[in-house]
Amino acid sequence: MIGIFDSGIGGLTVVRAIMDALPEYDIVYFGDTARTPYGTKSGRTVVEYSRQDTEFLVSKGAKIIVIACNTASSVAFEDIQDRFDLPVYEVISPAVDLALDQTRKDIIGVIGTRGTIESGIYERKIRERRPEARIHSAPCPLLVPLVEEGWSEKPETRMIVKKYLHPLKVRQIDTLILGCTHYPVIKHVIAHKIGKKVRIIDSSVALAGQIRQFLTDFPDVDATLGKNGHTRFYVSDVTRQFEKTAKTVIKRNIELTPVDLQG
Ligand code: DGL
Q: Can you state the angle between helices 203-217 and 92-102, rounded to 10 degrees?
């Protein structure tokens, strides 16, 4: 099974992309809805949660781990990779690759949670590969709750997105990285506010392509994965609102199984 985790809704955008790219592969998803958001927590806490999330997925038979959360990818990737003896994927590198491929003027904007932006991971990864790039980052802490709340089409969301993007627009970025897996849900609002000339980078499709390539290159790992097209969704808390938003993101009816990671 391919194991995927996030704090909640965001990881479902990654699940969707992986289901589209690898429809026959079994997936087990864990959304840590009882402890969301991760983006406002300290790095230490997010590392601890990520370890527990990974342990849970491994206990359900995951043979590959996808950290479908930028916040966890930015602070916990190395820890998870060192601690668990299986391939681990994160969402930041594919976004950086895609952004560097698409930018024309090397002026790149990054939006994400406070945790991700304060970690400076995007700047570091972009600069490693393109030292001359100009990078402008903005934390957007209100966007995760708006997405979780299903407020994608509300005027308030448009207004808040506009305010967050203003400093990036002024700096004339030509590429904008959606540095949080929740943001693809409101990609249309972001695209509208930042303007047609700016390319929007959502790493989920690129990530799914990388995993497909990896499985072709490593048939021994591929052979350990179930291929019955089953996807199971576990969450640490089930609420009606989460169920509703989850269905719209995954674009089909899903059954959520509650689990208690502490107990
Ligand atoms: N979707 C997650 C991310 O990509 C985080 C949301 C949160 O829990 O703050 O960063």
A: 110
Protein residues with CB under 6 Å of any ligand 1 atom: 6-7, 10, 36-39, 69-71, 113, 116, 144, 180-182
Tell me whether the CATH fold assigned to 2-90+204-258 matches the one assigned to 92-203: yes
Q: Where are the domains of the chain?
A: 2-90+204-258, 92-203
At 263, the pLDDT band (50, 70, 90 cuts) reads low
Centre of ligand 1 from the C-alpha of residue 220, in Å: 32
What separation in Å is there between the alpha carbon of 43 and the centre of ligand 1?
13
CATH hierarchy code of domain 2-90+204-258: 3.40.50.1860
Give, using CA atoms, the residue closest to atom 9 of ligand 1. Answer: 39
Tell me how far apart the alpha carbons of residues 122 and 134 are, in angstroms, rounded to a whole number.
12
Instruction: Give CA 204 to chain center in angstroms.
Output: 7
Nearest CA to ligand 1 atom 2: 69
The amino acid at residue 245 is T
How open is the CA angle 21-25-234, to the nearest 5 degrees?
105
Which among 180, 183, 202, 237 is the best mutation to test ligand 1's pocket, defined by most ligand atoms within 8 Å of the CB?
180
Range 92-203 classified under CATH 3.40.50.300: no
The more confidently predicted of residues 240 and 58 is: 58
pTM greater than the 0.70 cutoff: yes
